[in-house]
Amino acid sequence: MTCCTPATTIVSADAFRQSTPSADEFRLASRSIGDGILQTEISVPSIHCGGCINRIERGLAKLDGVQNVRVNLSSKRLALRWTDQGTPPDAIGALKKLGYDGHLFDPTEAAKPSGDLPRMLRALAVAAFASMNIMSLSVSVWAGAEGTTRNMLHWICAGIALPALLYAGRIFYESGWRALRHGQTNMDVPISIGIAAAFALSVYDTYQGYEHAYFDAATSLVFFLLIGRTLDYVMRERTRTAVKGLAQLSPRGAMTIRADGEYEYLPLKEIRSGTRLLITAGERVPVDCEVERGISDIDFSLVTGEGAPRRVEAGAALQAGILNITGSLTVIATEVAEDSFLAEMIRLMESAESGKSVYRRIADRASRLYAPAVHLTSLLSFVGWMIFQGDVHQAATVAIAVLIITCPCALGLAVPMVQVMAARRLFESRTMVKDGSAMERLNEIDTVVFDKTGTLTLGQMQVTNVDEIDTEALSMAVELASHSRHPSAQAIHAVASHIEGNLGFRFEEVREFPGLGLEGIAQGKVYRLGRAAFACKDDDGQNTAETVFSVEGRKLASFVFSDRLRPGARKCVEKLRQAGIAVEIVSGDSEPAVRAIADQLDISDYTAGILPGGKLDRIRLLTKHGHKVLMVGDGLNDAPALMAAHVSMAPASAADVGRNNADFVFLQDGLDTVFLAYRVARDAAKLIRQNFVIAIGYNVVALPVAILGHATPFVAAVAMSLSSLVVVANALRLKGEPMWAKPKPLGFGLELRRSAK
Amino acid sequence: MSDFFYLIPISLALGLAGLVLFLWSLKNGQYEDLDGASERILYDDDRPSEAHHE
Predict the structure, then answer these.
(1) CA separation for the pair A666, A654 (Å, rounded)
(2) For A154-209, how does the pLDDT look when each residue is reduced to its tens digit (9 = 90+)?
(3) Residue A95 C-alpha from the chain's centroid
(4) Exposure of A680 in the CB half-sphere (CA atoms within 13 A)
(5) In terms of Cα–Cα distance, which of A222, A218, A230, A201 is closest to A398?
(6) Which of A255, A641, A677, B20 is surrounded by the most beta carbons within 10 Å?
(7) For the residues of A148-197, what is the DSSP string, one character each?
(8) pLDDT category, A247, cuts 50, 70, 90?
(9) Could you tell me which chain A residue has the CA closest to the CA of B44?
(10) What are the C-alpha distances in Å from A404 to residues A6, A165, A708?
């Protein structure tokens, strides 16, 4: 019954970009919970079913020193408790063997209380209790209770309503007050006024022994509105947790080399400029630094968007976040200099943020028109009744009845309900939405700007000329390539599945030369795979981009690479175009590489070799011309553009900054998500409009009744509940079919393999 | 009518009890992993879990 991915196929898009944290890093991410027991929180994004829970809990419980493992399926996290016996359990390694990628959770983050949600749920429970009981007491009033009986029932209602309104309604009063203090109005202002007025009038009427009291209306109003608020909050919280879980790609500490030559693992914040660090192959560079010794290939793709790895030597400057692929490097940490890449990025992001116009959410825009209209109507009815009848109490009752009946109950539910349904539908397709406003903004776009490396493509090399290479040479090269984690070598190794027959070729001795290539000895002959200058004796040094396989300095084969498109990229671009949206590519990579991808996708608008500032300028130019731009990007160099765009999207493999600033984050490799998100946003916008029409239509009908003085508490209660129910039911319609059959939440691996066939 | 007034405090007390129980279960962490709880029941494991109280 389990739908788990088999343990062997877990190859996430960036599996080889990650490295297993060292024991020291693991310890650093733990917190003590007393009695020598430590707790470590690990985020495992690919947990998705009961089988996973079972497998992980059983698998990890077997590790030495592990006391308790508890998987949380909702937050896709596990809490590991272990006794300190010198070395922490290799939980990440064990997870990997089970087929899951685990990322350590920051202990300070993990220890934080779970935010406002419990508070909101408590408020919701209190409001539910109060409104239910008051409603049931009100029913007996409506049924004809009179005189002292009615009065007593009203007093009981007042007794329940007062604490409930004070406690449960606090969130509205606070928010309304905040808005008022800043000279603005939002939905919460008319709500707060309505509640307070209804309660005050009801207490007065009860005291005077009058017939009508609106305790039921006031409490059920709070209850309905709290449902909308809580749903909205849950949606944002879920995304926040998911994104936070992904934020663990960057290292938390680094191996430092002390003056006496001893190694010591230190947390990042203790690393000062001038500290000497050791960065082994497969590690991410933790801080900005300069290479002191060593040669290696560095994958800059997450920082600059460049596809091919670059070779670095002593003296080269490295940015935090890039990946060291082949050799060990000794580096010296440097200050974040004024003119460093990161500093420039931060400056650009700040300017992008300040230049961006503040988006006002639909509900707030609506309430800006709505609140004055409601208050004016209420005032006018008061004045009108005073003129025609002259009875202050009657006029006040009508005015307050108007306030209650127009209280934006349905409006308060109209938007969040739809957005929660939309977010849920996207969540099923493994896309996170940061908040409801992102969905509203996505609906407005008319241009999509894609980054290339890591966004349109997977950022993975692929051999494109397999057919031209002699099979025997190929099988030897594949065998040799399996000894390295260099992207080119991994790409060559991945060709293995194309070769028929026996791969039984073995090298006796293999050495890797960082920045150059691999050397293997078989049957007394020296085979080399790597840069042309390294592999071939008679190379003229012109063809530097090429990777060559040679024997004794004689060229046997050369490999041509290209980056691989994300699955669904073509379909996505096509569909966006059909929807009337312009598509373009803005990339920091070289012109030919970008052109190749643009041609494949049939995109005529592309810009290559562009600096991060250039990306930002491009977005600004488009914005200035009145376009609403969706930026899809993953690199650190995309972050300013992501920020400046009307709405932004990033894959889960993106750099931390990019991912944290994007409005949408998609976890799967396929790019169809971009179009799916757009479509869902469009559907949602349609439903929101319908809901507004319903809510306002209800007001148009109910308002004259209230103004004429016929809005008894009974009428108010029925009308309010009905309109809320209709709005909620309409929102539920969004939950129709996803764009494609609901994807079984497979690991990234299977999807990759499928597309590779 | 007034003969049945004693029902009001009873109903209110029952409602309050429900409210208190819900608040207790919320505080107790029983809503922390709703998806997990529904899956766990399918796996036969008679070991009581020690990590119920976070």
Answers:
(1) 10
(2) 999 999 999 999 999 998 898 889 888 888 777 788 888 888 988 998 999 888 88
(3) 23
(4) 32
(5) A201
(6) A641
(7) HHHHHHHHHHHHHHHHHHHHHTHHHHHHHHHHHHTT---THHHHHHHHHH
(8) low
(9) A54
(10) 58, 15, 14
Identity (one letter) of the amino acid at A303? V
d(CA A190, CA A192): 6
CA A513 vs. chain centroid, Å, equals 39
How much of chain A is helix, strand and coil, in % rounded to 5? 50, 15, 30
Distance from CA of A733 to the nearest CA of B (A): 23
Which residue in the block uniquely carries the two structure tokens 């004070």? A166
Q: Which residue carries 């599945």 as its tokens?
A: A497
| CA dist list (Å): A82 to A40, A65, A72, B45 | 8, 5, 17, 22
Q: How many CB pairs under 8 A join A and B?
A: 63
The mean-pLDDT minimum among A106-115, A225-234, A379-388, A663-672 falls in A106-115
Set of chain B residues whose Cβ sits within 8 Å of the Cβ of A143: none
Q: Across the interface, which of B15, B19, B33 has its CB nearest the CB of A72?
A: B33
Q: Which residues in chain B are closer than 8 Å to A68, comparing Cβ atoms?
A: 50-51
Q: For chain B, first and last CA: distance in Å?
A: 49
Q: Which of A24, A297, A451, A669 is catalytic?
A: A451
Cβ–Cβ < 8 Å for A552, A540: no
* Residue linked to tokens 């087929």: A99
Cross-strand pairs, A650: A665
Does the ipTM surpass 0.85? Answer: no
Phi, psi of A454 (to 5 degrees): 85, -10
Q: Does residue A753 have a pLDDT over 50?
A: no
Shortest CA gap B15–chain A (Å): 7
Asked if A42 contacts A119 with a C-beta cutoff of 8 angstroms, the reply is no
**Bridge pairing between strands A447-450 and A582-586:** parallel
Q: Answer whether A137 sits within 8 Å of B8, measured CB to CB.
A: yes
Residues in chain A within 8 Å Cβ distance of B42: 1, 50
Query: Nearest-CA distance from B36 to chain A in Å?
Result: 5
pTM of structure = 0.73
Known catalytic residue at A605: no
Determine the distance from the C-alpha atom of residue A246 to the mean position of all C-alpha atoms in its chain, rounded to a whole number.
8
